[in-house]
Structure formats: structure tokens, C-alpha cells
Amino acid sequence: MQCPTRQHEGQRFKYALCPGLVSERVQLFWCSSLQDDEIRSLQARIRSECGSRINAASKSAAKTGQGPALTGRLFRDLPISQRTLRGLEASKYTKMTEIQSGAIPLALFGRDILGEARTGSGKTLAFLVPTVECLYRQNWSKMDGLGAVIVSPTRELAYQIYQVLINVGQEHEISAGCIVGGRSLSEEQQAVSNMSVLVATPGRLLQHLDESPGFDSSALLMLVIDEADRILDFGFQETIHNILGHLPTQRQTLLFSATLHSSVHKLGRAALRSPEVVSVHHNAKSRTPETLKQIYMVVPLEKKVDTLFSFLRSHSQKKTIVFVSTCKQVRFLYEAFKKLKPGPAVMELHGRQSLTKRMLIFQQFMERERAVALVCTDIAARGVDFPAVDWVVQADCPDTVDSYIHRVGRTARYESTGKSALFLLPSEKPFVDKLTQARVSLKAIAAKQSKVVSIQQKLASVLAESGDIRHLAQRAFASYIRSVRLMKDKDVFDIQALSKEAFAESLGLADVPDIGAEWEAKDEDTEHNKLKKRKNQSALQRLKEKIKEKKKEKMRSHKDEEEEEELELSQQDSSKKKIGKWERRQRRIAAASKASRESVAEATPTEEDFLQLVEGRQAEHGSESRTEVLPPSKKRLKIRKDGSAVQASGQHVFFTKHGAQASELAQVADEMRTVANVPDEGGDRASFLKRVQDELATRDSSDAALSRSRLQKRHQTKRRKERAAKGAQQEDLSSESPGSPPPSPARPAQRERPEQADDVKPKRKALPPPVSKIASMDDLADLEKKALNRLGGLFA
Ligand SMILES: Nc1ncnc2c1ncn2[C@@H]1O[C@H](COP(=O)(O)OP(=O)(O)OP(=O)(O)O)[C@@H](O)[C@H]1O
């Protein structure tokens, strides 16, 4: 089968304004004058060389299976134009890879191709060279409408293909553009009608085919579907079928994929006509490049963030790509790791970023040679050709073996080497068997625990400082749990095996975030139905439902609280009923007496004694410390055993060094310190109490001595008076016997109550009854002696 031919005259210099991703002017030079001779000779060569090589090429391609990517065949040996050759050489492409040497001759000959080759094996050139050549040989101009279209699953990949196209086609005169979602459709509409080659994502291409009036695809020569497996994974099957419906059936189609699954074959059947299957690594020992070293680590969920951080820090000079399951995880890890110093240099790439930002990061990461880690979702998993990536880390287990292969394919591309690490939860270990069955061999490695740093505390403080990052952590938590819930392969993904508390803690969260009751539901069918329902709802409806659900939950919890309160009250009531009248009265009396005791206790100087004595103890350390301990309010305080003081109102007061009341936090800290220091302080208190007792005893005995001497004085005065009176009597009544007058009742002076003596106050003995009559001076002396003895006994 030969390429369809079309002849055009008057081809002149063309350039194109790329209407999609890149707004710069791109010039693709096409032959300024038709070189009919060259085209004729090329067609003759293709007929003879490629036609004869058709079977041999596909057979040898299928046979090789392994070995170096480059075959030794040179681009210059191909029947291709000088312009394409110059473009290839300018881009440093001289030797062909296996997929290129297998697919290009067949494609030049005009055959449809179903190509399968490992990641990084050069599929892009395998379809770009035939595309450019096909248009060149047809003298294609913008007047002919759309000549070739290349469909790619992602914007990044489309942009990358577009760049290779303008490099390889730099000597040609061709208009090319890249159209992807995320830009204004109307801006593109005018430009697309002038394009000869378009690189497009499926959705946007269909939109133009449907809605752009000047967009003529009826004469299309070549359709390329790149990363077909990915396109199908993204759910573009229907879109592709609709696109096919717009395109002419008489066309050449090239379909490339890293994996040829039944679904890809199915698409191939719909899109291709009698294709040549070029599967260069079909029989290879491994489905991944030999230059790729692969390891896996079993990491518990709660250790994952620590392990990832430690890994990146210890590989900080490498260029690394980290894959996680969701955009929210990317956001959290990026923001959190940025805050942790010293940490790795990180970048983020995910689908929630604006197109401009995505492109900017994409470009920046491409240009960085080392010492950077790109945290991303599967958006960067397929086809994207970042140069010189040292490590691919899959922090979350991929959904399928194919996803794994695509992810690791971001390193060890073309002839370079690379390494990959897969983190698996203990419950995800069956994934290793699946990889082994799919001809992917990897070694088990354990992280050196001594090298794994725990960043949990640091994360907790980052989250405490920043509400935004805390919010990101909560969302990352929820989105991860949901992603595991949604995974189809239940042999590998077990939501029940996830320790949510520990996971939340590992992200620095104090509580387990609410992920929505529906995600916790265990019933598969119910869950499935709910998801189905959610899918069919509009975003607004979903939001409304969410708010409703939240409100309901609030009401429920409020009601629960109320119910609990009610229950408590009713329990109190019922217990009240059970208490008898007599007991209630007893309780009232007890409560009243307790209250009066407390009020007495508050009024009693005992508390002040403690306070003073504390002051006294403080005074041992100097007068300054004595004043520091005083609370500024000078309210009466009760000192408790733990060193805290209680105001009359019952509120705790803690003394600080400065005498002021400490803040709530400091109070808690003081409380903790007090509790922690109980043994020491207990020792202090014991000696302190002993000192108090000694001092009281000293004071008591001095009081007793004072009282005794006062009493003695009083007695002496009395005796003197009595003697004087007796002498006078004797003078008056010289006949009467000598002696003292009877003493007045011996009342000891009221002892002054020592202020601090309450606690050690001895019981007072009853005083002797007053003596009414004194018989003689001897009696008086005897009485005095007895009284003194009694008083002395009182203070002994
Ligand atoms: N013939 C060649 N000579 C030198 N380098 C090449 C050649 N072909 C491809 N490369 C380089 O190899 C790398 C991988 O090529 P390409 O992106 O086309 O691989 P791929 O098979 O499409 O990978 P994936 O399946 O991951 O998309 C690129 O950096 C590309 O520049």
C-alpha cells in the first residue's frame, strides 16, 4: 500500500502561531520550492526498500526483545527528506532505537502501525518522522486543511510532542499547533483552520471538530494516537470514537502504547486498518528498561511521611520525582516540606494547578539538572520526558501494574540509568507478586531506621502555626483514604488495614479528620451506588447535599449533647427521689455545717500562718524573694500542699518569680512542675513543718514563762498588800496571831493566745476553784505554791 498522494503548487514559506499551549511564534520551515526530484526518488526508494523490508522489519523487531535501545541503523539510511535529516541531526538524533527502526520504514510505506515499546524507548520519533515525511511528500499546505493530528492524553505530553515536532521539522515549511484544554476556545478557533499539523488532547480536539466552523479535517492524511493505554485509562474511549467519526476513513493511523492490552487492541480494531504490529519488547525478560534499578520498601502508613522526608533529605542532590495518589497530598507535602529546614528542595505538579503554572513548573523541572524533588500526581506519569531524573519514588502504591511501569518510566530513559523506589504498606505487599507476574522484578529493601528522622513533632508545630497547612493536612488525609477506598484491586488496597489515628498523627494532626460517613461505610454496594449517584449529580447539587449532611450532623451531635444533659438531669432527679426526707435533712445540715466550717477556715489565721510561713521560708533566700512570692492582689490565700494557693473564691493562683499570676499556660506548666517536684518539695515541707513546730514550742514556753512571771508579780503585790494590811491589823489587834490575809481567788492571768499556735495548741486544764478563805499565812503560801505548780503544769 502506498501513501496517498496530492500535488500542490506554489508552496511558500509558512509559519504558525501556536494557538494552544505556547503563544510564541513557531516557525516550521517547509521546503520553499518543491523538490519533485527528491520526492520522486523518495517514493521510489520507499516502494523498493520499505516494501521489501516490511515483513523482515516487523519480524526482527518482534524477535529482538531485548538488548540496547539503539539498533545501529542510522536515520540517514532511511528514505526520508534532507530537511527531516537535518532537523534530526540538529537535535542530535543519528541512530535509531528499536521501535524507530521497526516502525518508521513501515509507516513511510503507508502502513497503519500498532506499536508497543517500553517507556523511554523513543516512540515519539517513531511517529513524528513518518508524519512530517508524509506531509512533505504530499506538498501539504494550509490550503489543504488539517493534514495530520496527534492525540495525546495529557497537556504536558502534548506540549512535549509539539516541541519535538518543531525541532525535527525545523527545516520544513509547515504550520503546526498544539491545542489543549484550559484556554479560550474562541481564541483558538481562527488559528486552527490554518494548521496543517495539530498536537491535541482528545477533549479539546473533539470540541474543535464539533464547534469550530473553519476547521476542516476531511482531507486528513495521518492520525497518531500516542499513549493509547493512558487515553483509555483516562476514560477517553468515547471521545476517541467520536473523533474517529469526524475523520476520513482513508487515512493512515499510527497507534503507540507502552502496553498493549485488550482494550488497546479493541481501540486498534476501531482505528486501524490491517495494522503492522511492532512490539519490540514483547518477549523481553523485563517490561522495564534494563538500566532501571527497582526497589520496594514496606513502610507502615504512619511512617510514610517520615520515610519520604528522610529519603528526600538523604538524596537531596538528586533529581527525583515523587508520585502520590491525589492532588491534595501533593499540596500538603509540598507546603509542609518547604517549611521543614533543613529539607529537600521541592516542586509540585498536579491537575488542580492553572495551565500556566503547570507549564511553568514543567519547564522549570525540565531545566533543573539536580537537587530537586518534584512531588506530583499521575499527571506526570506517562510520556513526559524529563531529562536526567535519578530517582522515581512511588510514595503511594499505584493502582495498576501499568501505572507502576509508566511511573518508573520517568527515569532510565533512552540510554540513561535510573532508580526507582516503591513504598508499600504491609497490606499492599501482594502488589509485588503482581509486578513479578508482569515481568517486573524489584528488590526488597528496608529503610535504615537510624536514618529515618521523625518529623511528626515538627509537622505538628507547623500545623499549629499555620491554619492553611493544617487544612491541607486534613484534606490530604481525607483524599488519601478516599483514594484507597476507590481502588478497584481489593487484593492490594484494604481500607480496613489503615490505621487512621496513626496516619493523622504522622501528618501532624491532633485529631482524625472527618472524611464523611459515606467513606467509612463498609457495604460495597451501597458505597458503589452512592458514588454512582454522586457522579450523576451536578457539582452544585453535591455541594448542597454536603452542607445538608453537615447541618444534620451538627443537629445530631447537638441533640446528643442535649439528650446527655437531659439524661444526667433525670438521673439526678431520680436519685433525689430515692433519698429520704430524713437523709435530705441530714445532708442539708451537713452542707450547712461544712459551709460554716469553710467560712471559719477561711477566716481562721491558719491559712495566713501557712502563707506567712511560706513567706518565712522564702525569706531564707532573701528579702527579695519574700516580696516576689506575694500575689499582687494581696488577697488572703490558702496555700495547698502542692504549693498552689487558693483564693477565697476557690480559684487557683500560682506564684511566679515576679509575684504576678502566671498565664494559663504557665500555670499548667507550674502545675506540672509542682507535681513533678513533689518529692523534693515534700522534703522541704517536712523540715519546714518541723521548724514551725519548734518555733511554736519556743513561743509557747516563752509565753508560759511570761505569764508565770506576771502571776508571780501579781501575787507578790497582793502579798505585800496583805502583809501591810496584816501589820496594821496586828498593830490594831496586837493580841491576834501573825499571818497573811487570805488570798483573793487565785486567778491566773488570762494567757495571751499565741497567734500561730492553733495547730499545736495544747488542751487547757480546768483552773482550780477559787479559795474563799485563808486560814493562815502558811495556808496562803501553800496555796500559792499549788497555784504555781498548776500553772507550770499547764505550760510544761
Ligand atoms: N534515536 C534517538 N537518539 C537519541 N535519543 C533518542 C532517540 N530517540 C529518542 N531519544 C530520546 O529518548 C528519550 C525518550 O524518548 P521518547 O519520549 O520518545 O520515549 P517514549 O517511548 O515515548 O517514552 P514514554 O513511553 O515514556 O512516552 C527522549 O529524551 C528522546 O530525546
Textual characterization of the structure:
It catalyses: ATP + H2O = ADP + phosphate + H(+). This protein is α/β, with parallel strands linked by helices and 796 residues long. Among the domains are: 32-279, P-loop containing nucleotide triphosphate hydrolases (Rossmann fold, 3-Layer(aba) Sandwich); 292-507, P-loop containing nucleotide triphosphate hydrolases (Rossmann fold). 50% of the residues lie in helices and 11% in strands. The chain has 27 helices and 21 strands. The strands form five sheets. A seven-stranded parallel sheet has the order 7-8-6-9-10-5-11, with helices on both faces. β16, α14 and β17 (418-424) form a beta-alpha-beta unit. α16 packs across α17 (467-486). The longest helix has 55 residues, at 678-732. Adenosine-5'-triphosphate (ATP) binds at residues 93, 95-97, 100, 117, 119-125, 258, 383, 385, 409, 413-414. Adenosine-5'-triphosphate is lined by residues 93, 95-97, 100, 117, 119-125, 258, 383, 385, 409, 413-414.
Largest sheet: 7 strands, parallel
CATH architecture of the domain at 32-279: 3-Layer(aba) Sandwich
- Number of helices, where a helix is a run of at least 4 consecutive DSSP H or I residues: 27
* Fraction of helical residues: 40-55%
Could you please say which CATH topology of the domain at 32-279 applies here? Answer: Rossmann fold
Given the C-alpha coordinates, what overall shape results? elongated
